[in-house]
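ok trying this again, last paste got cut off
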Amino acid sequence: MATMLKLNTGAEIPAIGFGTWQDKDAQEDAVLEALKAGYRHIDTARVYGTEPAVGSAIKKSGIPRDQIYITTKLWNNSHHPDDVEKALDASLKDLGTDYVDLYLMHWPSPFQRGDSLMPKVDGVTQVGDSDYVDTYKAMESTLKTGKTKAIGISNFSRAELERLLKETSVVPAAHQLELHPYLQQKNFVDFNKSKGIHITQYSPFGNQNEIYDAGKNMGKLIDDPVLAKIGQKYGKSGAQVALAWGIALDHSVIPKSKTPSRIKANLEGDFKLDAEDLETISGLDKKLRFNDASQGFRWDFYTDLDGKTKHFVKE
């Protein structure tokens, strides 16, 4: 049986989700493959450009909508409170559904309002002036419309989250952040949990993703000998152990792949690790963050969190 985890709304989220970032043209086939394999949690976002592919795959699968947990995310160019519901409507249209299960603010940082996802002048990102608290309040309003069942956040620092909790009324149902055995963020995870916020781990395989420059001159997390050795005990791979570690902490994990064999193998990362193995994995924490968009987005992310190395310095 697939592990289900409870949110502060009372709803359940499948522990293993299917990530759809990158490889836009391959996503319809990949999502259909994932649904056939047994995934019932699909993670997408406006900026990925994969919402139409996800919607099409769900339709083709024949699986009833209420059996699939769909997460999508508000993009930075739609942070103005007047733009939030319109952005959600656009996502729903592309997904071919009248509601999502979870709507996240992708980043706390606003871009200039408009149709451009990455508004730039001479290669420099044009930032907006919307406050993420006001953006979130507009997201709270979408709950009343039934267009989303829950709202949450992604990529917030502790200070940003503390301020959000103080100045808004709906506690985020989930916080999606980079988390894997090399970046465990135990203190921050505990803080989120103390507020009743569920953690979803993106990049659960760490530097497996070629886009992360920071992870290029080192071995891949999924090839870590410690994970491989633990895996042998269960007849599992290091990648599957990395997923099982997240699930053991009551987190959902959203691995991505377009290879049918790997799509299936990732779903088999839902198994129980012994306490001694969890203890061993906790010793792998290198406080190594691979995803930090501070410079490109002109916003200093994660300032009070583990693994912070890059800073955005205003001109």
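PB: full thing came through this time. The mean pLDDT is 95.
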